[in-house]
Amino acid sequence: MSVAKVSEISATSAVSFDDALKQGVARANKTLRNVKSVWIKEQHVRVEKGAIAEYQVNMMVTFVLDD
């Protein structure tokens, strides 16, 4: 039997939502073991002077706890 936990994290990128997602997953894998899935909860952009300045992704990361 496996037991999993879900942790919410936020990642940002000046490039794209995809880049923010990749950075968030890479960072989660540095701290959390056994990452199994990521669910995108929200996406936001920050606008400065009428242009997109930053992309933000809020995600739920599911990882299996060690025995």
Keywords:
67 residues, alpha+beta, three-stranded antiparallel sheet, 22% helix, elongated
Describe the structure.
The protein is of the alpha+beta class. The protein is 22% helix and 57% strand. The chain contains 1 helix and 3 strands. The protein has one helix at residues 17-31, and strands spanning 4-13, 35-48, 51-64. Strands 1-3-2 form a 3-stranded antiparallel beta sheet, covered by helices on one side. Strand 2 (35-48) and strand 3 form a beta hairpin. The chain starts with a strand and ends with a strand.
Alpha-carbon Rg, integer? 14 Å
* 3D shape: elongated
Helical proportion? 10-25%
Order of helices and strands: EHEE
Largest sheet: 3 strands, antiparallel
Strand tally is 3
Judged by helices, strands and strand pairing, the structural class is alpha+beta
Q: What distance lies between the first and last C-alpha atoms, to the nearest angstrom?
A: 9 Å
Mean pLDDT: 96
Helical element count?
1
Low-confidence stretches: none
Approximate strand percentage: over 45%
**How is the largest sheet built, in terms of strand order?**
1-3-2
Write the layout of secondary structure elements.
Elements (H helix, E strand, L loop, with lengths): L3 E10 L3 H15 L3 E14 L2 E14 L3
Antiparallel strand pairs: 1-3, 2-3
In brief, what are we looking at here?
The chain has 67 residues and is α+β, with helices and mostly antiparallel strands. The chain contains one helix and three strands; from the N terminus they run E-H-E-E.
